[in-house]
Design a protein that fits this description.
By secondary structure, the protein is α+β, with helices and mostly antiparallel strands. It has four helices and four strands. The protein has helices at 2-71, 74-90, 95-109, 156-169; strands at residues 114-120, 133-144, 174-183, 188-200. The protein has a four-stranded antiparallel beta sheet with strand order 1-2-4-3, with helices on one face. The longest helix has 70 residues, at 2-71.
Length: 204
């Protein structure tokens, strides 16, 4: 009987150690599961916060759109859309269009006995800072040629005004931002006009 008790003691001690390791393993698994679950919950909470913020921003934008639409009549909206649709046709699409503009200017100036000189400046982005539209500054110097014009008007002052009005009437957008006219005691000698030509930036 004594020998049997001594044989069972090592078996019971081994079983206790095995049970202890099993408990430690289970505890470790539970701890890892809690950690993973905690991280998942934190991510879910952050996602919910971001979703609520996005929904709030979308709702605010929808309210702003509705407020803007309420300020405009349908006829005015259609008119604006039609004007925006025509914008590309008002811009200088490429360098060849600038050459055509120069030829048109000189074809108007020659019969009026006016000599024109054009200098282009550095392309600039307008206030809207759009990537597709730019302005090309141009300085147009107009000087009277000796001799009489072959087409009316005859007065030097009226001839200058007629040429400037041609620049304004051009189908492509050309803004006259400044005009300087120099004259003598009896007549106008020459004029300098500052013009911004609106062009599509990509082809330039």
């Amino acid at each position: 009987m004594k020998a049997n008790r001594e044989e069972t003691k090592p078996v019971s001690r081994a079983a206790r150690w095995r049970a202890l390791w099993i408990r430690l393993g289970v505890f470790g698994l539970v701890a890892v599961s809690v950690l993973v679950l905690s991280r998942s919950v934190n991510r879910l909470l952050k996602a919910q916060v971001q979703t609520r913020a996005a929904s709030s921003q979308l709702a605010r934008l929808e309210n702003e759109v509705r407020a803007l639409k309420s300020k405009w009549r349908q006829e005015e909206i259609e008119e604006l859309e039609a004007r925006f649709a025509k914008l590309p046709s008002l811009l200088f699409p490429e360098e060849e269009a600038l050459g055509e503009w120069l030829r048109s200017l000189r074809s108007q100036a020659d019969p009026l006995a006016l000599d024109t000189k054009v200098e282009f400046g550095t392309v600039a982005v307008p206030v809207a800072k759009t990537k597709s539209v730019a302005t090309i500054p141009a300085t147009v110097t107009v000087q009277l040629k000796p001799g009489e014009p072959t087409a009316p008007p005859r007065s030097p002052y009226n001839r200058l005004l007629y040429l400037i009005s041609h620049l304004v009437r051009h189908p492509r957008r050309a803004d006259v931002v400044g005009i300087e006219v120099r004259s003598t005691s009896n007549s106008v000698s020459h004029a300098v006009a500052k013009i911004n030509l609106w062009a599509i930036e990509a082809p330039m």
